[in-house]
């Protein structure tokens, strides 16, 4: 093997190692492709809708996809009847991918004809194969004939006839991100002070003003829940330990439900009087607990900069989020 040939082979191997995970989403119009793309976006895929199949190879040559590290790039493209070259060129493009050694998976979305008709009537949109004045049913029949071979060669076929959107999202997560269900839910835990106003965006609000207040301890007043003396004062009391046990049991009950529902963002607010001591310590503890359970968690302290004395605003972790 010549030095030049060896160099080309090495370059090709490098390129293949950095090729993204590719999913081609196709299927019947009205079977749920838009909802599927939302699901892939939530899973961290770089998504392209209505892509002519002849451009799949060009897209793979792009070297930086927004928001994705090179070692874990994921790409999902929708190719369907809206592009007139779809049926003529997709087979050729797939053969090229195989020749290059690029792995891909085809996800085909289907539904019963009567359901597709009902969905089009409900949306009042025109079927892409009815431009010549054909009925919706005729357009569906044409599309089914054209997609027969694609469906036969698909790696996954999902029948969405009786599915609600959360069920489709759950099915896609199970197929393309098994074991990552919890990390698909972005959780923000933040502390706040009721005297600065109740939170507007929280899904769960926990009021911890019933716990003993470090504010009334002179040596702790100027500190925050990020400081060990305050944290120890708040967390290692019998009443707090009992609360934590019950609070965590509640989280263990509701969090899997949010994941199963397909919820993508969850805000948990923990409040005390001023947002300086108790809520901060317990928000930190709550975030640590959820992280240990495998959830993707960020934490913020909404009112820490308003703490009395100004010492809290200088704390390295007192920013709006970290």
TrEMBL record:
Domain of life: Bacteria
Amino acids binding ATP: 27-34
Domain RapZ C-terminal positions: 186-304
Name this polypeptide is given: RNase adapter RapZ
GO molecular function: ATP binding; GTP binding
Keywords: ATP-binding, GTP-binding, Nucleotide-binding
Residues annotated for GTP binding in this entry: 80-83
PANTHER family: RNASE ADAPTER PROTEIN RAPZ
Domain spans labelled RapZ-like N-terminal: 21-177
